[in-house]
Design a protein that fits this description.
With about 200 residues, this protein is α/β, with parallel strands linked by helices. It is about 50% helix and about 15% strand. The strands form two sheets. The protein has a six-stranded parallel beta sheet with strand order 3-2-1-4-6-7, sandwiched between helices.
Length: about 200
């Protein structure tokens, strides 16, 4: 089946991690251009503030609280999107966390949690997205980092997670193409962006 993406104003878009930074800006810009946005974050209060602000500006948005590290939460996110807007056209796996410190100094539990969000969150989101998009078509957009291609000292575990996201995304793209499904699979690799990343990142 030939891939044909809809114009933004005709799309229903899921975005994870929209409480700040790239996710927040993407959600607001997409809604301003007519897209219906379905937003997911762990903090229900922050999530509702974003939804309310988009609605006050005339946009269409719903919030679905949940943790991307929870596979069932991503299935529920997809279900809620379809219930609200009838379909999913684009899924943006944006949720992520950073962590500063030398690799041997960071607690293993913190490193595992970072991978649960940064890698497994993408895996869970992609699994749910593919299930809904393989028949009707659409786009999966994974947010990597400049650290996807070049490891950064003191951001070693973050870099490792983003290297893993690249490997997963590249393999998914090839498998989707081989299956003949009309899904665009994209990896975006931002460099330094003026977001609260540094303030939010745990520092060891």
């Amino acid at each position: 089946m030939r891939l044909k993406l809809k114009r933004l104003a005709d799309q229903a878009i899921i975005i994870t991690g929209p409480s700040s930074g790239i996710g927040l800006t993407a959600a607001e810009m997409a809604a301003a251009r007519g897209a219906r946005v379905v937003l997911n974050a762990r903090n229900e209060g922050d999530l509702q503030q974003v939804v309310d602000r988009i609605r006050q500006r005339g946009g269409q948005a719903i919030g679905v609280p949940g943790d991307v590290a929870d596979d069932e939460a991503m299935d529920l996110l997809a279900q809620r999107a379809v219930e609200a807007f009838g379909r999913i056209d684009t899924w943006v796996n944006n949720a992520g966390i950073g962590m500063y410190g030398r690799l041997w100094e960071m607690p293993m539990a913190d490193k595992r949690r970072l991978f649960d969000v940064n890698l497994w969150g993408v895996v869970h989101g992609c699994k749910a997205a593919v299930r809904h998009l393989r028949a009707q078509g659409g786009a999966i957009i994974n947010i990597g980092s400049v650290a996807t291609d070049r490891a950064i000292p003191l951001l070693g575990i973050y870099s490792a997670s983003k290297f893993a996201v690249k490997g997963y995304t590249d393999a998914l793209r090839m498998e989707v193409e081989q299956a003949g499904w009309p899904i665009a699979v994209t990896l975006v690799k931002p460099a330094s962006i003026n977001t609260p990343f540094i303030e939010h990142a745990r520092n060891h």
